[in-house]
From TrEMBL:
Keyword Transport (UniProt): no
Protein keywords: Membrane, Transmembrane, Transmembrane helix
Source taxonomy: Bacteria, Pseudomonadati, Pseudomonadota, Alphaproteobacteria, Holosporales
Name assigned to this protein: ABC transporter substrate-binding protein
Segments passing through the bilayer: 12-30
Pfam families according to UniProt: ABC_sub_bind
Amino acid sequence: MFTKPFNSILKYILFTFLIAFSAYLTFSLTKDLYLSTPGKPHRIIAITQIAPHPSLDEIRRGIMDVLSAENLKAEKIKPVEILFENAQGNVATATQIATKFVGLKPLVMVPITTPSAQSIHSAAKGHDLPIVFAGISDPATAKLLPTEEAPFITGVSALGPIEQQAKLIVDVLVDTPLKTVGIIFNPGEANSVRMVELITQYLEAFKIKVIQATATNTKEVSTAVQSLVGKVSALYLPNDNTVISALETVLKTAQLHKIPVFSSDPESVSRGCLACIAPDQYAVGEQVGHLVIKLLKGDSIKSLPVEVAHENVFVLNLKVAKDLGIVIKPELIEKADSLIKPLA
């Protein structure tokens, strides 16, 4: 005979098991119901991005505008359900999202940024699920180009005009003694590493020394920027998800020490960087959206090669220039596509 304490424990274990089994059963039935509902299992577009920041949000806005219900109707495409999940800067979360998306078997998966694209690409191996990436500077370095083993991938490469970015730093600071530029980046982001290699080559061609400072997460960005104070004449930020996510940290220190910051992310100029020439992020999103439209209309992904971003934008922040005491040549101001002016 069982004692009362033992019976209580047994009842508790049985109760816990029943609750867990019930939750599992409910989840399974809900998932099966969801995937068997007419119009849903094969009408999903799954979008994900690694972190929330304005540049990536602009890409997603461009995608969403192209895939609006009105546009789909005009293209005679059946309605789709668009799912979106943000990994909040966590690669482990990006992997979980990728696994979830693959399980849903969507029409198309659209990862924004290299970490999200790499997670999706890895999770989708062995599945014939189309992937259209966005916000990736160098898909070759990130190993995201189609191969015989994994041909179901395409997208838009958004590597900025690196040589022009180097020249922009020189042109903007033409009247400033410019000997050293500091670069902050995450060495774990393949795109960032490649951009740093390229910008270093071009800056060194102008006889400018480069000092690198790395940050593997947003918490390390503060230490990285502090390490460059007193050593550099300017800062350059590649299109690095870690650094751009902690942009306010960089700008706070830079403003305190009167260090101009150049970015490869157009949206960062309105937030306090001095200047940028880089792909228009919204236009990149539109370009990606049009690739998705082609897939929805029946084109094979194998017939859609990886594209290069069509539009670059040159943005100047004259307010920041005034605060730093930097005089920008009128001819350079005239070339800008967008100007952020001081308050009158």
